[in-house]
Specification:
alpha+beta; Rossmann fold; 16 strands; 20% strand
């Protein structure tokens, strides 16, 4: 016998019973984005692989270990989207959005693909909600995107979250810090993981992003980058903190926080739940003032975030947050005789056209079995059509919850049901 197919490792099916959580989060994301003046954008699921190698960085874990890259039939190297910011920036360039009022405020809801070790709330195909504000360097825009993310979590009812905040400087002040960081690590390389030994030469800032337990004491002792910010970066960071305080958004300064992508500069931030380990971040982002230039555009500032939908839903479930449940069919049209099948189908169709959800019985079930089916799917009413009802042009309308039953003219079924909606 042929083996039964299963979803590929690191992927999952989102079943009907899961959908209320997804709809709850999606609606809150859309509503919050609109309140902040952000507009929706969708980009392709796959892009030219070079978009990510140039933008995300060739020595990042995403590019080296996690991207799904393939050749199309024309020999072009393509990649399934491993993150959302570079595609949005590509769209900004391709469609001339620099001609629009700046900053351009965009949000997206999209699947993300990374070949990574599956873990709670994180899959090889997972989903992100993200927002980008492109075309303005002021710290007020950084504060705006952070507030958008924070208000979303509040809207969803999530609690006990921590906003971690840092500045990693820019091209003027970061090179000096990187030399200081290398000097700190130089005599400690025998005590760090193999990945960190490679990062020492290729991308030393990523040393601070390592999640390996053996590297944590060394990271904790590393010199904080905020001690080496230039005057402009320090002023930008100081104003950002003041703005967040004004908006009453609590934050924790994390001077060794960096992000896993090369395009970040100045502001970086993450949001984490308490006591759930190093991989528990549910959202994060920062400023990427050099990214669009890397992609072939003129220097253009930008800032944004992404938050994992699966991790949000896992957090909602763990905190017991109640979400609106999916609507059940309001009417189940049952038949007692084969002659009632066509009239039953017609009645269900008329109910749906009137905005009342309805299902018509199918198959050869007995009336008792049909009643059981109606109860199992959560219907409110059963509309029964039998020989008597067909002759009298009526319907026997039974409420499943209390068992109340009445005979209703066919022409009155819609008006009789609608008041209960």
């Amino acid at each position: 016998m042929t083996a039964q197919h299963k979803a590929p490792r690191g992927t999952r099916d989102t079943l009907p019973e899961d959908q209320p959580y997804w709809e709850f989060v999606r609606e809150a994301a859309s509503r919050t984005s609109t309140a902040f003046g952000y507009e929706s954008i969708e980009t392709p699921v796959f892009e030219e692989a070079s978009l990510f190698t140039r933008g995300v960085g060739e020595v990042t874990d995403i590019v080296q270990k996690e991207m799904y890259i393939f050749k199309d039939r024309g020999g072009l190297d393509l990649a399934l989207r491993p993150e959302g910011t570079a595609p949005v920036c590509r769209a900004y360039l391709e469609h001339g959005m620099h001609n629009l009022p700046q900053p351009v405020r965009l949000w997206y809801w999209t699947p993300i693909f990374r070949y990574d070790r599956p873990q709670a709330g994180r899959y090889r195909q997972h989903h992100q909600f993200g927002a980008e504000a492109i075309g303005e360097a002021a710290s007020a825009v950084d504060a705006e995107v952070i507030e958008l993310l924070w208000r979303l979590y509040e809207e969803l009812g999530l609690t006990n979250l921590t906003l971690q905040l840092n500045s990693i400087g820019d091209s003027k002040c970061r090179p000096k810090y990187l030399e200081i960081l290398r000097d700190y690590y130089r005599d400690k390389l025998d005590n760090v993981c193999l990945d960190c030994r490679a990062r020492f030469d290729r991308n030393p800032l990523r040393l601070l992003d390592c999640k390996q337990e053996r590297c944590q004491p060394i990271i904790a002792g590393a010199p904080p980058i905020t001690d080496y910010l230039c005057e402009d970066c320090a002023a930008h960071f100081s104003e950002l903190k003041a703005l967040l305080e004004t908006a009453r958004i609590p934050f924790t300064l994390s001077p060794r926080l960096v992000r896993g992508l090369d395009y970040y500069a100045r502001t970086v931030f993450e949001v984490t739940p308490p006591d759930e380990g190093a991989q528990s971040t549910i959202g994060g982002g920062g400023r990427y003032d050099g990214l669009i230039e890397l992609l072939g555009g003129r220097p253009t500032p930008g800032v944004g975030f992404a938050t994992g939908i699966e991790r949000i839903i896992l957090k909602l479930q763990r905190q017991g947050v109640a979400v609106p449940q999916r609507e059940r069919p309001q009417v189940y049209v049952a038949v007692q005789t084969p002659a009632a099948r066509v009239p039953a189908f017609r009645l269900a169709s008329e109910l749906r056209r009137a905005g009342i959800s309805a299902i018509s019985a199918a198959g050869e079930r007995s009336l008792k079995a049909q009643m059981g089916h109606a109860d199992a799917i959560g219907a409110t009413y059963v509309a029964i059509l039998g020989e008597r009802e067909l002759a009298e042009k009526t319907v026997t309308l039974r409420q499943l919850a209390g068992g109340a039953q009445e005979t209703v003219p066919l022409t009155d079924v819609v008006s009789r049901i609608r008041p209960s909606r």
